[in-house]
Amino acid sequence: MTDYSKDYSKDFPILEKEIYGKRLVYLDNAATSQKPDSVIRTLSEFYRSDNSNIHRGVHYLSEISSERYEKAREKVSDFIGADDPVDVTFTAGTTDSINQVACSLKPILEGNEVLISGVEHHSNIVPWQLAGAKLRAIPMDENCNLLPDSIEITDRTKMIAISHASNVLGSVNPVKEITEIAKEHDVPVLVDAAQSIQHLPIDVRDIGCDFLAFSGHKMYAATGVGVLYTSERFSDIMPSRGGGGMIDRVTLERTTYLKPPLRFEAGTPHIAGAISIGAAIDYMQNIGMDHIRKREHEVYSYAREKLLGTDGVTVYGNTDLMCGSISFNLDEIHHYDTGLILDKLGIAVRTGHHCAQPLMRTLGTEGTVRASFALYNTKEDADRLLEGMEKVRMMYA
Amino acid sequence: MRDAVQDEIIEQFGGLEWLDRYSLLISFGRELEPMDEKFRTEENSIGGCQSKAWVRAYEVDGRLMFNADSEAMITRGIISLLLKVVNNRSPREILDLDLYFLDEIGLKSNLSPARADGLASIIRRIRELAEGEVN
Description:
Chain A is of the alpha/beta class.
């Protein structure tokens, strides 16, 4: 039997920290994850020994950094099951990835419609609005689970953009089912994997999506870097930004562009960040994504059941497959108060609307307390959270 | 310049552990007179807070009285302390006030604009309202 109790927190230097004299219980992983020593070392060693701009120099260091950058691209490609590393573009993060797609496809989207879900984060809402598209939400049941059978695709539907996992509820959306329906209508699908890439094995060929977006910093890598996977059939879309590194030939009359991925990477990218994503993938693959999923599921389910069994706690959302986030409120206590007190107990959670105001309106609340888990969290962390909540309640009694 | 109301608050909070300070803020929050629903308007609301908050002022014999509220109890507690300090003063006095008690009872970090409770915005609004009366 596999042992899911191994303590991975030892790999993350920051988790040794004490906050207000108590061991830090970090449950804000949906906002950003902590970094393992191997990733921190990769970043520092890159700047110490290999730093140079990529693809441009004739010199030794430039070759090394270009190689390392392209190696990271290959790792990402393997990690998400892409056909070819050229389908992988490094961006500034999930938000940037989605904005790039929306901007590139603006001529098609403008005045037409994008289907999203009612659980979307603002970064999968606003870019489409900026591109001039109208948004329509796929119907959900009372637990905020999408109902793929109720998807209505019209001639005006030019994109379906769905988060793989909700950043608020932790519910995993049926993205594969949705892409199958979309294919029948030849509508492209963008999957926002910001909240799933660190928790679940992901295979873009299996999902069948045309775009996949995620951030490095939520998957144990650096901030300010992310990924956009683009399927081959969209490889010739216009780049949304121009500059150095992405052109074939420039004249004042006309410019031609390189093939992807460089076509989509104008300017100097976050080289060290991209390499750190490679290091984070190494770290996760060393443990194994299946192992991570099962281990996290144990801790996540434990925490969720304990919360559900606590009097006065409202837990939002419920579906068969969940990961990462759990959102809840305690009695009538304002989420902000709960978060402030938990903070002083050394427990880091997030409170508020979690950049998902439409979902908050559906849930009938202004905000929630969100505990979000990563591979280093343990049942003991969940117990600390529960004890903290008991303390909050006592203070209000 | 030291101020008797602020000094009294500092004495109450002196030496308390964090959770006890919060407990005390919660009890102050409970004592705060709730703001009438009709005053919870867009005009009186404070932006940038995780918990909604409202502030209004009215004049009594040349002195300003403030009425403020928030959805979060700890924020209400802080508001309650603030109002004890600023209420019933002339607009000029309010503008000259140094709110040193916030720092001394450990709430200085709540004054940072990055904090979600919007305490900094509430204080800014109180000053703006006082300024409006001075001119």
